[in-house]
Design goal:
Largest sheet: 6 strands, mixed, barrel
Distance between the termini: 22 Å
Shape: globular
Number of helices: 1
Radius of gyration: 15 Å
Strand content: over 45%
Order of helices and strands: EEEEHEEEEEE
Structural class: mainly beta
CATH superfamily: Acid Proteases
CATH architecture: Beta Barrel
Number of strands: 10
């Protein structure tokens, strides 16, 4: 389970553990959950440089205003719900790291705006599924 909070601007935030590669130590990074983003993780260029991420390629993206553009992609290692694996990081134009729905697949996301809490947990199939 990952626990987070809702900030004073209504953003659902969690801390993730990110590393340069599979052998590196993790650093904690606060990210904004963006259910409109279908990828894994977007980081601003200064954070990509801080982590020293390896450039992977580029991807075509459609921005929130409907325009298209090419964005650089990088590789990073994440500790996600106790599992360590390599993810694609997209270089974003904004100032805040964004976590997308591709990391949330197979999970339950609960954002409680009355208690200002965020919980992500791996979903366990029930006997009826």
């Amino acid at each position: 389970m990952i626990a987070g909070h809702v900030d004073s601007n209504g953003r659902a935030l969690i801390d993730v553990k990110l590393a340069y590669d599979e052998q590196s130590e993790f650093s904690k990074l606060s990210v904004w959950i963006d259910t409109g983003f279908t990828g894994q993780l977007v980081l601003p260029k200064p954070l990509i440089q801080q982590f020293g991420l390896r450039k992977a390629s580029a991807t075509h993206a459609q921005l929130a205003d409907g325009t298209g553009c090419w964005l650089e992609t990088y590789e990073a290692t994440i500790d996600w719900l106790g599992e360590r694996f390599i993810i694609e990081v997209i270089e974003g134009r904004g100032n805040f790291p964004l976590l997308g729905v591709l990391l949330l697949l197979g999970c339950r996301l609960a954002v409680d705006y009355s208690d200002l809490t965020v919980v992500i947990e791996r979903r366990v199939p029930t006997i009826h599924e």
